[in-house]
Amino acid sequence: MLHRRILCRFSFRPIFIVLLALSLGGVFILKEYDDSVSVSQKYNENFKDFEAPRKPDKEEHLDVGRESKKKRENLIIVTHGRSGSTFIGNIFNHHPNVFYLFEPYQTVERLHGAVATGDRDYQGEAFEWMKGILQCDFVSTKHVQDLERYYRRRYRKNYNPIKSISLLSPPFCPYNTTHSSWSAESCPPMDKETLEATCKSKYNITVLKPLIGRMPNENVKQLLSVCDNDRINCKFLFLVRDPRGIIPSSRAFGFFKDDDDSLLGTHEWSKKICSATEINLNFFRSMSSDEKKRFMLLRYEDLAKDPLKTLPSLLKFAGLPDDKNLRKWLDLASHRPETESERKAAAWRQDSWEGAERWRWLVASDVISVIEKYCSHVMSVLGYKAVGGSHDLQKNLTVKLLEDSYEALRWF
Ligand SMILES: *[C@@H]1O[C@H](CO)[C@@H](O)[C@H](O)[C@H]1NC(C)=O
Ligand SMILES: *[C@@H]1O[C@H](CO)[C@@H](O)[C@H](O)[C@H]1NC(C)=O
Ligand SMILES: *[C@@H]1O[C@H](CO)[C@@H](O)[C@H](O)[C@H]1NC(C)=O
């Protein structure tokens, strides 16, 4: 019933939604081999262009759920743009056990040339690249040069969340990034062999932050098939955010354009983002409790409100120990500096909760009404209270619009 309604409302790319839905469904289907052979076969059909998922043998089947030591651990942050994923990715970037890469699909995009994500060559190259990265294999010298250029050299400032700290630390640089003698200039170019050896030996988990919008066909289907490999373990952190925060921010970032009178872009983006979120949620909901262990749902606002309080659950999910320096960094990164000189020294410090709530005073209430029109159901499932056109509710910051208890919480 719900699906029908969403598909009808979703006017421009129904196929995308169906594929996204199928792919998320596939996550649990892939593990429940015996119970859902027919669905599983149907699912496999979708992958035959890439690589047929391996048939599990009996012994392996008994092993399902047990951790295999030789598998590379990966955590993949799945989200729409403008949902706080750069901030969350950067938290993992600062953990000493983590090999972090910001938006790995951008490498494919740059090497291939930007094309629609449905392009077959793009998809083939994306498959090869992701399959490599998820086991510390960096495919070719060209790929390594791209990482060199974009995640080590491009940004000269002291601080940039796009930089990968692991690529800027020993053995690639003489000093740790926190050391006063560290500089980008002191770091010679990386070579592929050292990169692969370091990824494997110094870091026991890879964390990636791919946006849904750059995935082949704009869904996680291919990524799930990449993860279905006996050398790779993947966990998925599904990050959601209040659509009233996502959509105006996407517009400000030029993800879409709006005509001030009709707000056509806002109409379409609200439909697109909220339909996709809702369908994903329904698939998470229908997973077996065992499968759900590989997934975590996180509301960006819960993190933004009190990052240090949320941190332990993120680390526990990833299988990472607490880290004192990470906590110290996070405390600074999520609070605005108090003095002007502090602010000059650390322009990257922002109040994370203020950022999450900014839409309440910056966005016109007719825009909020359009978003609520398309998103009210998914908002209520995720505990985001609608303002229903009330200017007072929207602008009065003492009114809480985030429910502590919400339906989707009970699905995990
Ligand atoms: C970098 O920091 C780690 C701990 O975070 C430490 O073990 C290591 O010795 C440091 N390396 C250098 C070159 O300072
Ligand atoms: C990585 O290594 C650390 C330190 O030895 C350990 O505490 C943690 O559980 C390991 N994590 C994973 C995901 O293997
Ligand atoms: C804002 O909301 C609070 C709590 O509902 C209320 O007590 C207060 O009067 C409101 N402030 C304004 C300026 O409307």
Chart the SSEs and their pairings.
Elements: H1 2-9, H2 14-31, H3 37-45, H4 58-63, E1 72-78, H5 85-93, E2 98-102, H6 105-112, H7 120-133, H8 141-153, H9 192-202, E3 205-209, H10 221-227, E4 232-240, H11 243-252, H12 264-285, E5 295-299, H13 300-305, H14 307-318, H15 324-333, H16 340-345, H17 352-357, H18 359-362, H19 365-381, H20 391-395
Parallel strand pairs: 1-3, 1-4, 2-3, 4-5
Helix pairs in contact: 2-3, 2-12, 6-7, 6-8, 7-10, 11-12, 11-19, 12-19
Bound molecules: 2-acetamido-2-deoxy-beta-D-glucopyranose (3 copies).
The site of one 2-acetamido-2-deoxy-beta-D-glucopyranose (NAG) has 5 residues, from loops.
Kindly describe this structure.
By secondary structure, this protein is an alpha/beta fold. The chain has helices spanning 2-9, 14-31, 37-45, 58-63, 85-93, 105-112, 120-133, 141-153, 192-202, 221-227, 243-252, 264-285, 300-305, 307-318, 324-333, 340-345, 352-357, 359-362, 365-381, 391-395, and strands at residues 72-78, 98-102, 205-209, 232-240, 295-299. Strands 2-3-1-4-5 form a 5-stranded parallel beta sheet, with helices on both faces. Helix 6 (105-112) packs across helix 8 and helix 12 runs parallel beside helix 19 (365-381). The two termini are 22 Å apart. The relative contact order is 0.14. Residues 1-68 have low confidence and may be disordered. It binds 2-acetamido-2-deoxy-beta-D-glucopyranose (NAG) (3 copies). The site of one 2-acetamido-2-deoxy-beta-D-glucopyranose has 7 residues, from loops.
